[in-house]
Design brief:
By secondary structure, the chain is an alpha/beta fold. Helix content is about 25%, strand content about 15%. Helix 9 links the parallel strand 8 and strand 9.
Length: about 425
């Protein structure tokens, strides 16, 4: 007898909120993955089985990630202003649209990371793009607004709307300082001229304005990397109180920012002083081999977490344990997990970084890849995967948040139009 299927919308939960405020996000910055794939780089799981689709594998029950981050440069063909070419600086808007479409199609939350530079933007490098360097401040305010809006419109048109938007990358001391080598950089330190701070806040406000207009549902992130200096971090965000944003984004690398007690102090102080803001660790990583020598700016934690694949996984577990103590935190992203020495040098990567979640020699996944999902609540879904999915009209998703090509034909529980739906047979 032929079996018919019918839909039953059930109250397994009072309601289903897509990317709700209390959703926990776990994943990584996979900005280089498209470049690796374009160069036919092979990835393998921990047992040595070839992975046919790395994005699908990251979303699978084995890994359980639900969010991914991608950086965006203004014009990466300009490369570094001192002339040093870096193949990792390749993410222009066309590259990002191409990768972001895939990220969204697989059901991940998508974080867009504007660098607002032609090259790496970090606390020591916030160089104004070559095409913008002749602009005065008023023109620059208009340009950051129009550029942000143009990029977001392209993503929305492509069906790759960001869920989170970083308006700047590691902007602990301001952004768009000026041209490389300029004698009058507009930086923002504690004692910097108030005019520099006013300029900084105006730039952020103009970027936020574009975000709200084009992606009103997205959360805006202001990202810094002073997690090792709790008071500086709190003072900075308090100084930016008038700027429109939702999430405090932090970089945390223990060898640069101190042990977990220091991070915990920073998170506690943020909760006390900015209780209305959610915090996400938008970058973290730990070495599994070839760690640099200890120095005044680099602390050796190998006595706590060995510099090995297992030690890297132990760091991830320790970090998760610490983050679970802080209810103001809801995101954890590994930086450059897709590093893979199987790629051609000077085409995909200039030098090994040795902090990724695949081994540069064996090209197999490290145990740390499978640890990060432990940050998700135990009742989050199958294999710990978060019960969340993009709100694409008419689309169906399984409980891993993976988008299905059509209405499911098998009985089970699915996500559809913001609700959990049971499909079961009628005989």
């Amino acid at each position: 007898m032929k079996t018919k299927l019918h839909l039953l919308i059930v109250a397994l939960a009072a309601s289903f909120s897509v990317h709700a405020q209390n959703t926990i996000y776990v994943g990584g910055d996979i900005s280089q993955l498209q470049s690796y794939e374009d160069n036919n780089v092979a990835y393998y799981d921990q047992q040595g089985k070839k992975i046919d689709d790395v994005l699908k594998y990251m979303k699978s029950e084995a890994v359980g990630w639900n969010a991914l981050r991608v950086r965006l440069f203004v014009n990466p063909t300009k490369q570094h202003p001192n002339g040093a070419a870096d193949p990792q600086v390749c993410q222009d808007i066309d590259y990002v649209v191409r990768l972001a479409k895939r990220i969204k199609a697989e059901g991940f939350a998508f974080m867009l990371d504007f660098h607002y530079s032609d090259t790496w933007a970090d606390p020591s490098n916030q160089w104004t793009p070559a095409a913008w360097k002749a602009l005065n401040d008023n023109d620059l305010y208009e340009r950051i607004y129009s550029y942000t809006k143009e990029c977001l419109e392209k993503l929305v048109e492509a069906g790759a709307t960001p869920d989170f938007i970083q308006t700047g990358n590691e902007i602990s001391y301001g952004m768009l300082w000026g041209a490389y080598g300029s004698s009058s950089l507009k930086q923002c330190f504690s004692a910097s001229a108030e005019a520099n701070w006013t300029r900084f806040k105006t730039l952020l406000s103009q970027a936020a304005k574009a975000c709200r207009e084009v992606c009103p549902q997205a959360k805006i992130i202001i990202h810094t990397e002073r997690a090792g200096k709790p008071q500086y971090t709190v003072d900075l965000y308090k100084r930016l109180a008038a700027v429109d944003y939702d999430v405090i984004g932090l970089s945390y690398y223990p060898f640069w920012h101190g042990g977990l007690a220091t991070l915990g102090n920073t998170l506690n102080m943020l909760a006390q002083n900015l209780p209305e803001k959610t915090v996400q660790i938008v970058e973290t990583a730990y070495y599994y081999q070839y760690q640099p020598a200890a120095s005044s700016s680099f602390t050796d934690f190998s006595s706590v977490w060995a510099v090995s694949p297992d030690g890297q996984a132990a760091f991830a577990s320790s970090l998760i344990d610490e983050l679970k103590n802080h209810t103001n935190v809801n995101g954890l992203y590994w930086w450059f997990p897709e590093e893979n020495g199987n790629g051609p040098r000077n085409v995909v990567l200039k030098d090994w970084v040795n902090r990724g979640l695949w081994n540069n020699t064996t090209h197999r996944a490290h145990p740390g890849l499978y640890v990060l999902k432990d940050y998700l609540p135990a009742d989050a879904g199958i294999g710990g995967s978060q019960l969340s999915a993009p709100d694409a009209p008419g689309a169906w998703y399984n409980l891993n948040g993976q988008r299905l090509s059509e209405q499911p034909a098998k009985s089970g529980i699915y996500l559809h139009e913001g609700r959990k739906v049971i499909i079961r047979p009628i005989r």
